[in-house]
What does this fold into?
Amino acid sequence: RSVQGNLTRPRIFASPLTFSLGGTYQLRLTPARGRLESAIGTLTFTYPINPHWQAYFGYLIQVSNISQDVVKPAFDPAVPTGGSASITNRRDAIVTDRTGALQFGANYTNTDKPFNPSEGFIASADLKLASPYLGGIDWFIRADLSWQHFIPIPRTQGRLNFRYALRYGQAIPLPGLPMTDTTSVPEIWRYFGGGTVDLGVRGLLPETMLVDIETIDEGGGVQRLHYVAQGGHIRALATLALQVVSINDFLGGKIAHSLFFDFGMLTQKWSQVQFNRDFRRSIGLNFLKWDIKIVTLALGYAVLLPNVIAPGNVKPIDDRNGRFIFDVGITF
It folds into this structure.
């Protein structure tokens, strides 16, 4: 569930600046992260440097409630006082967060079409500085970079296209500063991955690229795997795709198909990375893509590379047979 409103005024103060005031409320129920509720307000000024470059700066405030598992021992009359209980209570607890931050960034677009390009490239950079002095709780920096490149193959009449995307993000806590003792970035601002082209590595369950897996003994020799998504402080993702257009005109758009290869990693620190454990890879096919002027609708299938090819790539909670995927937007 989501509600969003935005007020925009171009050329304020008789200048090229565009002023935007926005607000969003969102409630999400996710299998990997539980219940997420957030409200965010933004105040943004945008400056067009030239037809391709656009810079922006502003302020954001966000409050959120995150549902998390709490595991605690329950009273067991068969266990002596002070002993280790064999029964546990599992229930949700609500963790709240408040973030106030300054935001700076720039976008560069040089493509043949603004919404659904087949040639050119798109680059973006975004930096957030959060502080208790700005209305939040913690000190941290979050930086995000992205690059998307669309390359038509010569002598194919625009039917064959190679494209790739690179994304990197890092969130850095700032301990030892006044008003609070920050030790990590709040969960709502960490990186989650898996399931879509934007989150990385299609073929995974959504947001399960990095999880904490707990083995629960249910008695009688039966064990259950319980997983909770972990947010990483570092995310590095890439996608390679080869697209072919089969029908150039179908209800105002094009029918296309693509092969893709997704790979990347999600971690807390570069020093903790173990290649076989953290580097995830999947391949897939978008067997139907409908490219219209403003958006692409895609239906496909993705599967993780098996462990015999990429040791450690398929985890116990992953579907080794693959998953259907549905994407909307600039799709690879």
Summary: Residues 175 and 181 are 6 Å apart (CA to CA). DSSP finds one helix and 15 strands in the chain.
